[in-house]
Amino acid sequence: MPLLPMGPMLRHARANRYGIAAYNMIDFNSARAIIDGATALDAPMIVQVSVKTVKHWGAKHVATWVRMLANDAPVPVALHLDHCTDVDVIRRCIDAGWTSVMFDGSALPFAENLATSQQVYALTEAAGIGLEAEIGAIGGVEDDKVVNDDQSRLANFDECVAFVRDMPNLAVFAPAIGTAHGFYKGEAKIAYDLLDRITQTISIPIALHGGTGLTEEQFHRCIALGCGKVNISTMHKSLFIDGFINLRAEKPKMAEPLPFIDAQHAAMKADVMQCIRIFGSDGRAQAALAA
Questions:
Q1: pTM (two decimals)
Q2: Residue 105 belongs to a domain with what CATH number?
Q3: Residue 32: helix, strand or coil by DSSP?
Q4: Does residue 178 have a pLDDT over 60?
Q5: What is the pLDDT at residue 136?
Q6: 270 falls within a domain
Q7: How confident is the model at residue 235 (pLDDT cuts 50, 70, 90)?
Q8: CA–CA dist 180, 142 (Å, integer)
Q9: Domain that includes residue 77, residue range
């Protein structure tokens, strides 16, 4: 089916207390694994792309790949630009037919982040697509963005309320609640009280960043508190590489490349399916589509 905005499906996910996986693709094969995993379990899916990946392949090429895969899939798929600080890149993705973008102004002073987010919100509203916006500082490494532990900070509740007040149609809101990008060195310290307070006041679906490495219990608790979008990037990148390496170690003399591509696809698809089951979005495709 055609690529869809993620806002309506995320609102359905929040209302029904399940999470929609948002996987970062790397190339055509990884995008295929993401959508194949969703199709196998009849789940809605968000294919998201880092700015670095957009610049490597081009916004039009990425949109063409994902649109082609989505057209052949019976489940709703959104194409989302992840953690973008450059409004020009956002415009290029909108012009190329992407159905969702994120403006990440979390490193800016609050007033500047709000003002620029509102400018991007006007662009997405005019295009009829979804916007994700972020406040607070989510730790770890994402694309070329590095936030050290001493720089990470939880979102301020009052700022969260003020931030979304004039952007009621945000597809999803990403307040920092203690999760981090990349592999965790220890257990993630999630501020559940802050998340609960935010979701008791703000009806917009919440994005859970830094999903790689969280426990099932942590996922379930965050989703129950209103996190409708769950981001997975680092694990997918790791499996993208391991799919090749593991087969090479098993069959060092193999010279045909297609089995390596198949092994990579199988590893990534299996992880996508595992997360779909954990997030509770399996069997939800048609309900999310009707939302």
A1: 0.91
A2: 3.20.20.70
A3: helix
A4: yes
A5: 84
A6: yes
A7: confident
A8: 9
A9: 7-290
- Structural domain count of the chain: 1
The answer to whether residue 144 sits within a structural domain is yes
State mean pLDDT over 3-9.
97
Pairing of strands 145-147, 139-142: antiparallel
2 belongs to a structural domain: no
Q: Cβ distance 174 to 206 under 8 Å?
A: yes
**How far apart are alpha carbons 272 and 147 in whole angstroms?**
26
Residue 178: CB partners within 8 Å, gap ≥ 6?
A: 154, 188, 189, 190, 191
Show which residues are catalytic: 82
| Residues paired with 77 in a beta bridge | 45
Band (pLDDT 50/70/90 cuts) for residue 234 is: confident
For residues 51 and 19, the answer to whether their CB atoms sit within 8 Å is no
Confidence of residue 186 (pLDDT cuts 50, 70, 90): low
- Residue 270 identity: A
Bridge partners (DSSP) listed for residue 181 = 140
Contacts of 216 (CB under 8 A, 6+ apart): 278
Structure tokens at 58: 């081009």
